[in-house]
Specification:
Elements lengths: L4 E11 L8 E6 L2 H13 L3 E8 L12 E2 L2 E14 L2 E19 L5 E7 L13 H21 L16 H11 L4 H9 L3 H15 L4
Parallel strand pairs: 1-3
Antiparallel strand pairs: 1-7, 2-6, 3-4, 3-5, 5-6, 6-7
Helix pairs in contact: 3-5
């Protein structure tokens, strides 16, 4: 991946969350600006960009602070789509490529569009012995969730999607970053880290503090 612009006029969806590569994101959409955006993305089989809000709110309100958001986000591709009633969409997206915003424009109907360039994917890195407990704990959690789903039916959604890569630093770190309660700013900083090993080391510290993993 080069540092040349990856996409022009990428529609952005500022949210009060952080989307990681490989992560799942369910959304209920009812604002006109996003109903139109999602419809066009689905028709063109194109991604949109998820960026973390630093001010403002997900839903536009009169008198609210203007939206501002982090400069690094993640492309989201739609994998499930449902329209249960007029003016409402329910979708599930998966995170793919991280990107850096280079230029941004607010269109007249309230949609942000940006020129972005790719941020390099995590290097595939085997988990070292001293961090294997993070993968073991995640595997136990996934096994428990899958057992619960088998008991309660396919309607139960798992927060983690296959394929599972329990021996990859970046994948394991990303899944814990999605699951462990933490401040939005910290989650964003972890997503932005270039080193998947450093991200997993920091996650290991968080797991130890919460008692999830030794």
């Amino acid at each position: 991946m080069t540092t040349q612009p990856l996409l022009h006029s990428l529609p952005l969806f500022p949210l009060g969350t952080v989307l990681f590569p490989g992560g799942l994101l369910p959304l209920r959409i009812f604002e006109v600006r996003y109903l139109d955006m999602i419809g066009k993305c689905r028709k063109a089989n194109a991604p949109f960009g998820v960026v973390s809000l630093t001010s403002g709110s997900e839903v536009r309100k009169a008198g609210a602070d203007a939206e501002s958001f982090a400069a690094i986000g993640t492309l989201a591709t739609i994998r499930e789509f449902d329209s249960p009633q007029s003016g409402l969409l329910q979708i599930e997206c998966v995170g793919t490529q991280r990107f850096r915003v280079r230029d941004v424009e607010l269109q007249k109907h309230g949609l942000w569009v940006a020129e972005v360039e790719a941020v390099l994917d995590d290097v595939a890195l085997e988990i070292p012995d001293d961090l294997q407990h993070t993968a073991s704990a995640l595997r136990r959690l996934v096994d428990t969730l899958e057992e619960r789903r088998a008991e309660q039916g396919e309607s139960v959604r798992l927060p983690i999607g296959a394929p599972y890569r329990f021996n990859d630093c970046g994948w394991v770190a990303n899944r814990w970053c999605e699951l462990v309660p933490m401040q939005l700013e910290l989650r964003q900083r972890l997503m932005e880290l270039d080193s998947p090993l450093m991200r997993l080391e920091l996650v290991s510290d968080l797991l130890a503090r919460t008692g999830i993993s030794g």
